[in-house]
């Protein structure tokens, strides 16, 4: 019997694919190679596949597959049934298996098929079997085990190398050893091939923030240092569960797949609870600017509408930048906007919905006392030419702005929000930091206030309604 086959009665499928380098959610596969191994023997199969886009020159040079070669090849949908039958019921074995499995799984879904095989990554298997070696790329396995190369960087050629590797390790290790390793890996939560499983095992299932790091600048495999910038920062009330969810076998997005392929190292910071995790995440994302975080980015154009009276007592709106205001201490601010355009567009929408006069709001220039264009369209009640009193228009403006009103800071000074054993120190909707002892608390109160941050503000507005408030 072929080594370890009795543990997988359906047999093995050593799989490799070539792609255009495009995302899994597009038709980017250019070649599929499969070596089927079961009690009936070994069978090899491969086919070129026509992708939906051109093959970049860098990929052509690497694989030797060009646009002319795939011009008459079938689409994946045309061969989906055959590929599915060759994989169905077998252990799916691939090098850096998340890539091959992710692309094929997405291609099958587009073809109306659902493939859910057990997946074994030979990178992870090599790491378990040869922990003294730092590198486990396919080229390193070729050199280390004397594998015979027939057609490197072609699907069937690389699949054949995996079959050779499988035979080599069974010659080297005692019966049952490989099977135990495979059962452990197949049953273990799917992790990126370059990530040390011990790191994940050490993750606590408590509230906190986690940081994903990629390869070091020097290109050394297997980790990074804290001076490197993270790829992604996230938060959770259960750190370990959330981190593992990133590495679930069934990827739903190319962004998640790309992130998992780059992760080499994880760090984490435990917090007292959910609020602490939210605050720490917002602060770290803005300070470190991780490449994969799309939200919580710093915005230096933050602005708001200020409702004030002019020298004769008429109400007017003025667009103010966050840097020029003491947010929280004022009671005349309405809305937060990341750009001047966003603020103007929101005010135009309010004018339209509440029949306000655009010239009086400063949105349009118009001769004083003349009927504005919106009045002619019956979208203004006439405040521009005396058809509505300034006081009535102002009252309707205040009513329209009510939903945008910025929360007023009602405390005379800084406060603490108690979460477990920690105190989040807050002043004027600014988070000064978190203290767990008197000395840290005193340092935070003396350190001064940071700049206003919209995301921190949103977290704190909700937090003061949930956590006990302590006057400081």
Describe it for me?
This protein is α+β, with helices and mostly antiparallel strands. The chain has 4 domains: 183 residues, Ribonuclease H-like superfamily/Ribonuclease H (Nucleotidyltransferase, domain 5), CATH 3.30.420.10; 92 residues, GIY-YIG endonuclease (3-Layer(aba) Sandwich), CATH 3.40.1440; 102 residues, no CATH class; 57 residues, no CATH class. It is built from 17 helices and 15 strands. Helix 6 packs across helix 7 and helix 12 packs antiparallel against helix 17. The chain starts with 11 loop residues before the first strand and ends with a strand. About 2% of the residues have low confidence.
List keywords for this structure.
single chain, 472 residues, alpha+beta, Nucleotidyltransferase, domain 5, GIY-YIG endonuclease, 4 domains, 5-stranded mixed β-sheet, 4-stranded antiparallel β-sheet, 37% helix, 19% strand, elongated
């Amino acid at each position: 019997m072929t080594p370890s086959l009795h543990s997988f009665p359906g047999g093995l499928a050593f799989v490799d694919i070539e792609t255009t380098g495009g995302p899994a959610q597009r038709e980017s596969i250019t070649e599929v190679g499969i070596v089927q191994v079961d009690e009936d023997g070994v069978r090899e199969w491969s086919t070129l596949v026509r992708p939906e886009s051109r093959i970049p020159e860098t990929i052509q040079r690497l694989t030797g597959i060009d646009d002319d070669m795939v011009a008459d090849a079938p689409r994946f949908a045309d061969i989906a049934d055959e590929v599915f039958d060759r994989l169905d019921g077998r252990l799916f074995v691939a090098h850096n298996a998340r890539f091959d499995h992710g692309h094929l799984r997405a291609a099958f879904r587009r073809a109306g098929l659902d493939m859910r095989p057990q997946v074994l990554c030979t990178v992870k298997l090599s790491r378990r079997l040869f922990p003294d070696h730092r590198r486990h790329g396919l080229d390193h396995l070729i050199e280390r085990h004397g594998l015979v190369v027939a057609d490197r960087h072609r699907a069937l050629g690389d699949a054949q190398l995996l079959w050779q590797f499988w035979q080599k390790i069974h010659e080297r290790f005692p019966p049952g050893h490989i099977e135990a390793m495979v059962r452990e890996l197949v049953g273990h939560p799917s992790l990126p091939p370059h990530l040390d499983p011990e790191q994940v095992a050490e993750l606590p299932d408590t509230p906190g923030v986690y940081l994903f790091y990629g390869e070091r600048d020097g290109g050394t495999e297997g980790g990074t240092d804290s001076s490197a910038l993270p790829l992604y920062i996230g938060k959770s009330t259960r750190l370990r569960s959330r981190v593992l969810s990133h590495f679930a076998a069934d990827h739903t997005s190319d962004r998640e797949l790309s992130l998992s392929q780059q992760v080499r190292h994880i760090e984490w910071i435990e917090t007292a609870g959910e609020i602490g995790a939210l605050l720490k995440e917002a602060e770290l994302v803005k300070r470190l600017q991780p490449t994969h975080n799309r939200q919580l980015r710093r915005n230096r154009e933050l602005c708001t509408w200020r409702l004030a009276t002019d020298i004769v007592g008429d109400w007017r709106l003025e667009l103010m930048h966050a840097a020029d205001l003491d947010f929280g201490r004022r009671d005349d601010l309405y809305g937060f906007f990341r750009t001047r355009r966003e603020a103007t567009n929101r005010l135009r929408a309010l004018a339209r919905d509440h029949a306000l006069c655009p010239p009086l709001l400063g949105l349009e220039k118009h001769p004083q006392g003349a009927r504005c264009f919106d009045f002619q369209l019956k979208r203004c009640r006439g405040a521009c030419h005396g058809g509505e009193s300034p006081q009535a228009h102002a009252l309707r403006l205040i009513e329209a702005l009510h939903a945008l009103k910025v929360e007023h800071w009602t405390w005379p000074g800084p406060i603490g929000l108690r979460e477990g054993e920690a105190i989040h120190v807050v002043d004027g909707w600014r988070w000064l930091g978190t203290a767990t002892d008197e000395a840290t608390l005193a340092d935070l109160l003396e350190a001064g206030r940071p700049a206003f941050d919209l995301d921190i503000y949103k977290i704190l507005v909700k937090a003061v309604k949930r956590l006990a408030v302590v006057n400081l």
